[in-house]
Amino acid sequence: MTDSGMSAAALRVVAAGWGTTVQDHGRRGMAHLGVPSAGAVDREAHDRSNRLVGNPPGAATIETRGGLVIEALRPVIAATSADGQRHTLQSGDTIRIDPADGQMWAYLALRGGIETEPVLGSRSTDTLSGLGPAPLADGDAVDVGRDPGTDLVAEQAPVRAPEPTVRLWAAPRAMWFRGGRDALVSRRWLVSSDVSRVGVRLSPGVFERDPEAPAEMASEGLIAGAVQITPAGEPIVMLADHPTTGGYPVIGVVDPLDLPIVAQAVPGTTIRFMAAGPG
């Protein structure tokens, strides 16, 4: 992002909407230092939007929960994950970005990528730690990088089922619960209203602890997709801004290829888990 008075800016944020941040592939390999990875919560949609404008997958995009309105300050080529289409914007043109029906997040890619100062190798905003650029605000000016000089290609978004099935791998603490990972696989789960870039909380269930499992545990490392079980029996699926450690036992881990399904699940909808690999 640039100062709003600089002529190099490509866009002006007319309305920032909700949860609007700059995201790329995040900060990798620094969890042992307490640095979360961040990055796009739906990597698939982020990458697809970049492909539409000819960017490399790791180019920074704008991620939003909706209500984002931007104005072009000079000609730019843009693509949104909501409609899966490319748009050529002239100076003065505006466009609104909202998630597609049944989804939580949308992405705006600009040819050349969003240009901000990298922090620890990434342009991503981390809402948990505060690393990276600040969330976008009304009136902000945004610049883009150099034209990549690539060809523009067509792209089609995959169709997702109304009630998707998410592959779930076993985790080290699965056997702390009677039935292990099957305690998650055996029923539908309602997505609660408690969703963010940090995680998605599901409706409570009955998780009977093994009598030999310790009552408490020390904090352990977490990865994206880890499913923690709270004392109230609520599964929480960790997303991009998850903390690097946590004190709730992890019963399973969502397959990385299916994590975007959980991230995009709208409160009030349901998901099902399917066992992946041995339990």
What does the model show?
It is a single chain. 7% of the residues lie in helices and 30% in strands. With 279 residues, the chain is mainly beta. The protein has a seven-stranded mixed barrel. The protein has a five-stranded antiparallel β-sheet with strand order 7-4-1-10-9, with no helix packed on it. Strands 2-3-8-5-6 form a five-stranded antiparallel β-sheet, covered by helices on one side. It has helices spanning 43-52, 182-185, 259-263, and strands at residues 11-15, 21-23, 61-64, 68-72, 76-80, 85-89, 94-97, 106-110, 114-115, 141-144, 165-170, 188-195, 199-202, 220-221, 226-229, 235-238, 245-246, 250-254, 270-275. The chain is elongated, with a radius of gyration of 20 Å. It folds into two domains: 11-144, no CATH class; 165-275, Cyclophilin-like (Cyclophilin).
Give the helices and strands, then pairings.
Layout: E1 11-15, E2 21-23, H1 43-52, E3 61-64, E4 68-72, E5 76-80, E6 85-89, E7 94-97, E8 106-110, E9 114-115, E10 141-144, E11 165-170, H2 182-185, E12 188-195, E13 199-202, E14 220-221, E15 226-229, E16 235-238, E17 245-246, E18 250-254, H3 259-263, E19 270-275
Parallel strand pairs: 11-19
Antiparallel strand pairs: 1-4, 1-10, 2-3, 3-8, 4-7, 5-6, 5-8, 9-10, 11-18, 12-13, 12-19, 13-16, 14-17, 15-16, 15-18
